[in-house]
Write a structure and sequence with these properties.
The complex is a heterodimer of chains A (332) and B (530). Chain A has 332 residues and is mainly alpha-helical. Chain A has two domains: 2-104, no CATH class; 106-331, Orthogonal Bundle (MetI-like fold). Chain A is 75% helix and 4% strand. Chain A has helices at residues 2-31, 37-42, 48-57, 64-77, 105-140, 145-159, 162-176, 192-226, 229-236, 241-271, 273-278, 284-293, 297-325, 328-331, and strands spanning 79-82, 87-90, 97-98, 103-104. Chain A is globular. Chain B has 19 helices and 20 strands. Chain B has helices at residues 42-49, 76-82, 104-116, 120-133, 139-142, 152-164, 182-199, 210-216, 234-239, 244-252, 314-321, 363-373, 378-391, 408-420, 438-455, 466-472, 490-495, 500-508, 514-529; strands at residues 4-13, 16-26, 31-35, 59-66, 69-70, 87-90, 170-174, 202-207, 219-224, 227-233, 270-281, 288-299, 303-307, 329-334, 337-339, 346-349, 426-430, 458-463, 475-480, 483-489. The two termini of chain B are 44 Å apart. The relative contact order of chain B is 0.11. The chains are: A mainly alpha (332), B alpha/beta (530). The A-B interface holds A 228-230, 232-240, 243, 247-248, 251-252, 325-328 and B 50, 52, 79-85, 88-89, 91, 93, 96-102, 110-111, 114-115, 146, 148, 159, 162. Chain B: Keywords: ATP-binding, Nucleotide-binding, Transport. Chain B: Residues 4-250, 272-506 form the ABC transporter domain.
């Protein structure tokens, strides 16, 4: 077990280092670019005095590494901002202040994050069930007519853009059949049942598209495992085809599925812009696009960091699951 | 009713007829070996006994009856009830033959439950019981290990335990010891022998190694091109073969007890000298010393044999001798002068003739590489390569062919030609014949001997096969855990070994004579007790 403990420790350190590297990169990319950073940060409608004030708050006179240190300090211990008349405290983790909306970046993110997480985690359950299930079925029925139908369906799913699938779903389910109301985000804490009903369509349309990739991956990995020697052993010992596919071949497909899932969950937190827009979900992706459009630099930096955080954490969790699934990983 | 009855069996894969009209019987409790070179169809026969070709696209003709089941006519359900319960199979590579994700005990329990409807607990208990039976120490705890946590020999024991779980009437063993070291091989063969004595089950052994057959069975069936060449009691077939092919096969098998035919007189001139060679891999807690303080000399025109089991450091030593791997400590002197790095005068022939040739280049180009590296002119290169091809028994027309068009033996000839291209004085051969069939092996060994006499080459011959090494070497060094445990003139070491480890190795070599094999088995039991 000490081997596994050491493995966890190495992974944790690696994750922390990656996060730090991301923060450096993001900070440098956005704050060391040529041009008047204070003007950009403050927004186009700021007066010269306001720009000057922002420049002072951002300590633009200081060298870059000091400013970055200050930024880190904000994340870990918090920061005070003077707005001219009063001093506002921004508690840790503080990602700065949006001068365009006079809001703390963290507050903006915290209102958007539950929406994105609701969408992505719910969709994840669906795409895993649908995707892996379809993959197992098509590996089991390999070479037969039913497998070809499944392959065609998953390919079609992969090729359909989310705005087409989502729109069609919405028109049919909410418009024609009137089975569901047109989606509108409801807080989980307010009404869990309404939360789920309203998210059902967004979940489905995001999941159906992602599921295609999982189906194909599962099928390929299972067929590869089915060709291995140990499968021959169990066949030669009279183990039935159902147990061979369901126990031995599926186990071999688990590792790549875990890896792909981590990637998808991580990037969908900030990347499901189309789904969020289509169903009017006020999530991270939508907000990020908005912040980029109006060049609200602190918000962009904060959001990119948070999205990066989720990608890295999702991958770290995947690494650990991977090692639980296959202990040989720990030795490597 | 016999345990196995095969009548006029044919198996075809596409246009290839792998088994061609084979018939044989196996009485209850008897043991039969199918012996043949690669491609003779022996493993295909083993698969046919369990109906393993069903659903693979192979066409199977004739009839196969195993333990009262008509394998050809049986339903899928009937076949499953035969597999594992009445006839169980042990495969060649014990690592890839077990599921890497599940504990070994669980895998055995799963097979047991398929056939007995036992409870989970009872099946798990049965798994521990059979693991104990095949000699896994601390079986209860080890049954929770996954295959990669077992050594090669223990994995093969685990597979045998799986076969024993349902007390089958027939054990089919397909090259059960080919992936194992000679001492482990002896342990596994002894285990099979004891189990057969105790349970009275029949054994069908598939092997390319005549010695393994001599150790283990009552009857031998020699196969070639899918047909039976000769079939009879083991003593008769191996002792007084009636067929020319059987004689050829037996003649090619190197004997560990036959002294080497004398070759050219040894010279005193030392070409290569290694002193205090040491090589470590890894750092810190994972550090591992592969070669630990080895000193040796190679004289002009002689062959130094290096034997040892897997992991003993043979290959690492060979790579250091040719300069492919820098030693951690110690040095190499060539012609009396210190030398580091690669040396055109010291060449290497590799084990696997498939992967040591670039598949995308013609063999002529591969042989020309050392000449190009030396800056030879293009016009002269082709002529020299053609000369080399003929020298190793190939033809000039082979220059533009690619490695996949050659057989294993021919590829190894290409490897030898490439080593000769640089006009070496020493060639280090790392397991040069272990991937080859015995008849091809004998031809390649003969070629190396010829070249040695003609060119006055010094050879370092690294191998795990003690018999082959005896046939080619003047002096030998026995390696274990990175050190040389015993060295000296070849006949002295083989006939009067001093070290217990050398004795153990020699006692483990399978004998071709069944009576001698039985004596050796008894001797091993004594050694094990002592």
């Amino acid at each position: 077990m000490s081997g596994f403990g050491g493995f966890l420790l190495r992974r944790a350190v690696g994750t922390a280092v990656t996060l730090l590297a991301i923060s450096v990169l993001v900070y440098v990319v956005f704050y060391a670019t040529p041009g008047n950073v204070a003007q950009i940060t403050c927004g186009p409608r700021c007066s010269p005095e306001q720009v000057h004030q922002v420049a002072q708050q951002l300590k633009l006179g200081d060298p870059l590494y000091l400013r970055y240190w200050h930024f880190l300090e904000g994340i870990f211990v918090g920061q005070d901002y003077s707005t001219g008349t009063s001093v506002a405290h921004c508690p840790a983790p503080c990602l700065g202040l949006s001068y365009q909306s006079d809001q703390q970046v963290m507050d903006i993110i915290l209102t958007k994050l539950p929406v994105s997480l609701s969408l992505v985690l719910g969709a994840m359950v669906l795409w895993l069930v649908i995707g892996v299930g379809t993959g197992v079925l098509s590996a089991w029925r390999r070479g037969r007519f039913s497998e070809r139908v499944l392959t065609a369906v998953t390919l079609a799913g992969w090729a359909t853009p989310v705005f087409v699938l989502g729109l069609v779903l919405m028109i049919v389910v909410c418009g024609e059949l009137q089975l569901l109301p047109f989606p509108q985000y409801v807080n989980f804490a307010d009404d869990p049942e309404q939360w789920a009903w309203n998210l059902l369509l967004p979940w489905l349309s995001l999941a159906l598209i992602e599921a295609a990739a999982f189906a194909r991956l599962t099928r390929a990995a299972m067929l590869e495992t089915l060709a291995e020697d140990h499968i021959r052993t169990f066949r030669a010992y009279g183990v039935g085809e159902r147990a061979i596919v369901g126990r031995h071949a599926l186990r071999g497909a688990l590792a790549p599925v875990i890896a792909l899932n981590a990637n998808n969950v991580g990037s969908a937190v900030g990347g499901a812009v189309l789904t969020e827009t289509l169903f009017g979900l006020p999530g991270i992706g939508q907000e990020l696009v908005h912040a980029v459009k109006v060049v609200d630099l602190p918000v962009v930096v904060g959001m990119v960091l948070v999205v990066g955080f989720f990608v890295v954490i999702a991958n770290a969790v995947a690494d650990v699951l991977y090692a639980v699934a296959d202990r040989r990983v720990v030795l490597a | 009713m016999s345990l196995v009855e095969v009548t006029d069996l044919t198996v075809e894969f596409g246009s290839l007829r792998a088994v061609d009209g084979l018939s044989f019987r196996l009485a209850e409790g008897a043991a039969l070996a199918l012996v043949g070179e690669s491609g003779s169809g022996k493993s295909t026969v083993a698969g046919a006994l369990l109906g393993l070709h069903r659903g693979t696209g192979a066409r199977v003709g004739g009839s196969v009856h195993v333990a009262g089941t008509d394998v050809q006519q049986a339903s899928d359900g009937e076949l499953r009830r035969l597999r594992g319960a009445k006839a169980a199979m042990v495969f060649q590579d014990p690592l890839s033959s077990l599921d890497p994700y599940y504990a070994i005990g669980d895998q055995i329990a799963e097979v047991y439950r398929v056939h007995t409807r036992a409870s989970r607990r009872a099946a798990r208990a049965r798994a521990v019981e059979v693991l104990e039976r095949v000699g896994i120490p601390d079986a209860r705890r080890r049954s929770r290990s996954r295959p990669h946590e077992f050594s090669g020999g223990m994995r093969q024991r685990a597979l045998i335990a799986m076969a024993l779980a349902c007390e089958p009437d027939l054990l089919i063993a397909d090259e059960p010891t080919t992936a194992l070291d000679v001492t482990v091989q002896a342990q596994i063969l002894d285990l099979l022998h004891t189990l057969r004595e105790e349970t009275g089950m029949g054994l069908l052994l598939v092997t390319h190694d005549v010695g393994v057959a001599a150790e283990s069975v009552d009857e031998v069936l020699v196969m070639r091109h899918g047909k039976a060449v000769e079939h009879g009691p083991v003593g008769t077939v191996l002792g007084a073969p009636a067929q020319a092919y059987t004689r050829e096969l037996l003649g090619a098998v190197p004997r560990v007890d036959a002294p080497r035919a004398a070759v050219a007189e040894a010279s005193d001139e030392v070409v290569l000298e290694a002193t205090g060679l040491r090589r470590e891999f890894g750092r810190g807690r994972t550090a591992f010393t592969a070669v630990d303080d080895i000193s040796l000399t190679v004289r002009r025109g002689e062959t130094l044999g290096i034997v040892g089991e897997s992991g003993s450091g043979k290959t690492t030593l060979g790579r250091m001798l040719v300069g492919l791997l820098p030693p951690t400590a110690g040095g190499i002197r060539y012609d009396g002068r210190p030398h580091t790095g690669v040396n055109p005068a010291v060449q290497m022939v590799f084990q696997d003739p498939v992967s040591s040739l670039n598949p995308r280049r013609s063999v002529g180009e591969s042989i020309a590489d050392p000449l190009r590296a030396r800056g030879e002119h293009d016009e002269r290169i082709r002529g020299r390569v053609l000369e080399l091809l003929e020298r190793v028994g190939l033809e000039a027309a082979h220059y533009d062919r690619y490695p996949h068009e050659f057989s294993g033996g021919q590829r190894q000839r290409v490897g030898i030609a490439r080593a000769l291209a640089a006009d070496p004085r020493v060639i280090v051969c790392d397991e040069p014949v272990s991937a080859l069939d015995v008849t091809t092996q004998a031809q390649v060994v003969a070629l190396l001997g010829e070249l040695q006499r003609e060119l006055g080459l010094a050879l370092v011959f690294i191998a795990h096969d003690l018999a082959v090494v005896r046939q080619v070497s003047d002096r030998i060094a026995v390696m274990r855990r990175g050190q040389v445990v015993e060295s000296g003139p070849v006949d002295e070491v083989y006939d009067t070994p001093r070290e217990p480890y050398t004795k153990q190795l020699l006692a483990a070599v399978p004998a071709l004579d069944p009576e001698l094999a039985a004596q050796r088995r008894a001797a091993r039991r004594e050694l094990a007790v002592a």
